[in-house]
Inverse folding.
DNA sequence: AAAAACAATACTATTTTAGTATACTTTGGA
DNA sequence: TCCAAAGTATACTAAAATAGTATTGTTTTT
């Protein structure tokens, strides 16, 4: 029932870029330094965020990363899925070959877990980075 | 964002006992066989459920396990916590020593995750095994 | 063309997961 | 009384996931 460290880093990297605004390009090194994230690991994560269309990258001298969308268009769910793949609280719910109950994912437990999983996904989808920025201002 | 296989087995073992009713003693071997769970692994899990006060064990010939409470008094949350310990979607939220943001768990991201975590815990706490049994009957 | 920045792939150490093995204790019944 | 059936306790282990690191390559600006 855990998000990975990589996802936590991703959240903070996206928030960092969100503070700068949609277009602004920032070097990975700056984010790594400010957010206490190992540079090479951050680069790997930023590439995943890039493939998901959350950030854009610019190579060469003066390059870096910027948000590819406005902060209100990016949710925690988007970032989780970009880094970890589809959210699943039980592997059985995604891939029936792992359903050790031998009931093809149709037992009462797995139906219930499926509902809870849907709630979690919906909940993560309601939190945009614009919202997080606003809450941050409030302090 | 995953429950472990052990937790999944625990859910099914408790449901199996719940079907029998509160007092009835069932051998681990029977549960293992019916639910497709490795026996020794199940015994380990049942011991954890025992320490959490969810099941009672009986040793010796004719021994086994029974529910220690009525099915309506046992929730998915109880079982998750018995097997995995406290629910935490980010280790930083429980143990600040792991908070790599260097902000003592007080950044905007971690506040938001904390709210979501509370929702998940509340949600798991609303699903009792009585409820699951009832849903099962409905099929 | 040199240097700065990201890209891609492969590798590695650590931790967690998912069990297994071994030896022991309790209990009921022949 | 003693033995077999059941759970207890501790230690061990293989495989997978996590959290990085290393190396080499490509793009872009000056």
């Amino acid at each position: 029932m855990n998000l990975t460290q990589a996802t936590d880093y991703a959240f903070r990297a996206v928030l960092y870029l969100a503070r700068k605004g949609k277009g602004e390009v920032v070097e990975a090194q700056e984010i790594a330094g400010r957010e206490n994230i190992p540079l090479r690991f951050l680069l790997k994560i930023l590439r995943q965020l890039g493939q998901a269309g959350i950030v854009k990258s610019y190579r060469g001298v003066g390059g870096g990363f910027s948000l590819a969308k406005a902060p209100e268009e990016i949710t925690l769910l988007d970032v989780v899925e970009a880094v970890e793949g589809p959210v699943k609280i039980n592997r059985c719910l995604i891939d029936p070959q792992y359903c050790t109950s031998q009931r093809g994912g149709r037992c009462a437990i797995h139906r219930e877990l499926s509902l809870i999983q849907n709630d979690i996904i919906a909940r993560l989808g309601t939190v945009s980075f614009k919202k997080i920025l606003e809450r941050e201002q409030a302090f």
User: Anything to note?
Assistant: Residues 27-29, 43-44, 46-47, 50, 57-65 of chain A lie near DNA strand C (CB under 10 Å from a C1'). Chain A touches chain B at residues 1-3, 5, 8-9, 11-12, 15, 35-37, 76, 80, 84, 87-92, 100-102, 107-109, 111-113, 116, 119-120, 123-124, 127, 132-133, 135-136, 139 (CB under 8 Å). Residues 37 and 65 of chain A are 15 Å apart (CA to CA). The mean pLDDT of chain A is 91.
